[in-house]
Sequence to fold (117 residues):
Amino acid sequence: MRQWMVDPKVLCNKHLFGEHVEHHMFVGTINKGTKVDGYLKNNLLEPLSLKDRHDELAQEILMRGFNHKSDLPEIDYSHLTEIQMDIKINMISSGNDLISRCEKCRDRYIKEIKNDF
Fold:
């Protein structure tokens, strides 16, 4: 499980839907009180962004003409420390990792850069 935290427009459908599902999995894991230390340590989870990021992904899903009917449940952060809550994903590192793994995401990234100019 991971949050890529790159612009959702860059994500291929596989990674867009994958990250969306993983948000639901992260919330379920956190709400059960399961430790997420490894995800935090490895730059894979940014707890306080879960709701907003899910909503960004859902918006992109809708923009691509797909359905989205899975609201994110409330998140019980009570067992996370303040330090864990404040962790931020390094978006540059995450983006580089993504485009090195996925040719479709890399192509979408290049297209987005060209659209910005």
User: Anything to note?
Assistant: DSSP finds six helices and no strands in the chain. The longest helix spans residues 13-32. Helices lie at 13-32, 37-41, 50-63, 82-85, 91-101, 103-116.
